[in-house]
Amino acid sequence: MCKQNILFIFVCRFSWLIRGKIQRKVSREESSREHTMQLSKFTDYSFRALIYLARNRNKRCTIEELATQLETSHNHMKKVICRLAANRYVKSAKGRTGGLFLGDEPQNIVLSDVLLLAEENMNLLMCYNSCSACPLQKQHCALKKISRNALQKFINEFENHTLQDIL
User: Fold this and answer.
1) Residue 66 and residue 52 in contact, taking contact as beta carbons nearer than 8 Å
2) I want to staple 112 with a disulfide (CB 3.0 to 4.6 A). Which of 46, 123, 130, 158 is the partner?
3) Higher pLDDT among residues 121 and 165, named by residue
């Protein structure tokens, strides 16, 4: 056998060995990890802003204060507050004693309403938007129905709670 063939066999076996160890390590890490679904930062900050305003109902807050306390940028918080204010979850007052405050009582703010307002895309699968995104749509595919049901249960859980429940 020539040296090139021996070297090639060695490299192949070594890479196979390394790949096997990495795959075993990854599968152990994945099994010990919690499974999570993550909402957008916009939604997260929308909830946080409402919680902060509800906990500080005795004073008027500023966007700068919210951004600092919630550890986000001023511009990002401005967009969050703008959307919440447009839907009357947050109100503002001008003048020397002005600022931001909660637009309604915490027990009247349903979390699913805020979730659906803030989260622009609740589609778990690409085929929600377009049937052409999946070649299996031509045949019967139950995955879309299962994921829609799971999403609805997720939204229903938020529907069962108000802002008051998370203060």
Assistant:
1) yes
2) 158
3) 165
Residue (of 121, 92, 113) closest to 46 by Cα position:
113
Provide the 8-state DSSP code for 162: B
DSSP state of 35: P
d(CA 88, CA 86): 6
pTM: 0.73
* Phi, psi dihedrals of residue 99, rounded to the nearest 5°: 145, -170
What are the φ and ψ backbone dihedral angles of 102, each rounded to 5 degrees? Answer: -65, 135
- Kindly give the interhelix angle for 41-55 and 111-118, rounded to the nearest 10 degrees: 140
Structure tokens at 85: 């204010």
Query: Which range in 81-85, 120-124, 140-144, 152-156 is most confidently predicted, on average pLDDT?
Result: 81-85
Look at 127 and 41; give whichever has higher pLDDT: 41
Q: Which domains are seen in the chain, by residue range?
A: 41-166 (1.10.10.10)
Q: Is 67 exposed, middle or buried (0-12, 13-18, 19+ CB in 10 A)?
A: buried
Please check the confidence at residue 10 and state whether its pLDDT lies above 50. no
Q: What is the pLDDT of residues 44-67, one digit of tens each?
A: 999 999 999 999 999 999 999 999
State the residue for tokens 């916009």: 42
